[in-house]
Hints:
This protein is of the alpha/beta class. The chain has helices at about 5-20, 30-45, 50-55, 60-70, 90-100, 170-185, 195-200, 225-230, 265-270, 290-300, 315-330, 350-355, 360-375, 390-400, 410-415, 440, 445-470, 495-500, 515-520, and strands at about 120-125, 140-145, 155, 160, 185-190, 205-210, 235-245, 255, 275-280, 310, 335-340, 380-385, 405-410, 485-490, 490-495. About 35% of the residues lie in helices and about 10% in strands. The strands form four sheets. The protein has an eight-stranded parallel sheet. The chain has a three-stranded antiparallel sheet with strand order 1-14-15.
Amino acid sequence: MKVRELFILVSSLVVIVIVGTALFWPPILWIFIFVAPLIVMGIFDIVQKNHTIRRNFPLIGRFRYVLESIRPEIQQYFVETDTEGRPLNRILRSLVYRRAKGTTDTEPFGTQMDLYHSGYEWMEHSMYAKHNPKDIGEFPRLLIGGKDCKQPYASSLLNISAMSFGSLSDRAIMAMNKGAKMANFAHNTGEGGISDYHLKYGGDLIWQIGTGYFGCRNDDGTFNEETFRENALKPEVKMIEIKLSQGAKPGHGGILPAIKNTDEIARVRHIEPGIAVHSPPSHSAFSDPIQFMYFIKKLRDLSEGKPIGFKLCIGRKQEFMDFCEAMIYTGITPDFITVDGGEGGTGAAPVEFSNTMGMPLREGLVFVHDVLVGFGLRKEIKVIVAGKIISGFHMARAIALGADGCNSARAMMLAVGCIQALQCNMNTCPTGVATQNRSLVKGLVVEDKAERVKKYHEATIHSLLELVAAAGLNGPDELDRSYISKRVGLYNVQTYEEIYPYTKEGCLLDIADIPENYKRYFQLTRIMK
């Protein structure tokens, strides 16, 4: 029996006992002075639609908000830390909540950060700041689609990053998708396949294909062209992303605990229900860079020309450079590349993988951008980033370093009610976001949370445009590495252009132009030798 049902049962028994006793001893009715307000408060908690915790845990759920007012419940190393090692989690989580709820986005008493600690970053403003567009219709779009793409997609600069149905509940998926539909941005399905909940509200989808080929697999786990084509041609599917690796656990397959593998999820994924599902660490449809390029072409042909890209966390640099050489050798290029950082999140991953595997986002993004420029491929391919993108500044920093657009998962989870209870892998998420427990999921109200997703997205894009306007620029596409500065020591500040000097266009195509920091990779076996 769950807390909600238990509260109703206990309240009913208390009323019956008091009324029954009053027949013999009327003074007991005075107890109602104390009991009735508590029962009324509990009933109100159950019927209200704005707070999932209170819906799932009437009356006692209120203590969470009392405790949070004294000290937020979870303070982990979420994004950056200040000079004393204190996490900025509280600041950023509060930012998401305020934007999602449409409340004030200002803070009294100035900055909450230590401007003099090593690692502090800021954006350089201009004395000739521009006007920031207030109309949502003025928000810029990003056209994704290369020379071979027949159905390019005009994407938002901020979309929902990959999270599967299975890791998230059906209501969390619906809230995100409806919010994406309302605000005209895209929702990445994650590698768990396309469910009915991804399709219910008609929001734009980025269909992610992982190593398990969920939603397009044969019984033996290999790729199935027919089921792929069936899903790829759905009008809601705007782009298709091949997941090579993710930042939270690069080199490790996805994990779906048995307790979350319901009959419905198994149907969507084309797997057996009730068992733990571990995706393979690598793909079976290709085994080298050239085969990978032809796989990209196959997916583009089967989808009738929709944008095809891939997602990876950078590991062995030589392997990504091999991909670029294969693009030149075959003449096949992806329409986009999603760069995930080693700091990316997940519902379940081995601790060693989360903490010590994978290149951090900034270094990975710079490397991918510069290598694409060096091979003369950058203009043909859009670069998207994922990995703790939460604020407008995070977006501005990523775009300045070389990204075209951004994906966010963590912030979108916070927008639909996640409180970081850290129970994602236990099926006991109290907010109904990362669980398949129906009693807990029922507390999440799709309409309310969809509106919050919409508001968070619009407020964050607006924040990005305000920062860009303050820098005196006409749009985010004018940002470059010179606009972001970083304190690299107590008395030393550098711009990102000084930290990460730009690569010369086409310099990796001619052995005579190869920069020193890339030469060692060209001493290894190359595709085009």
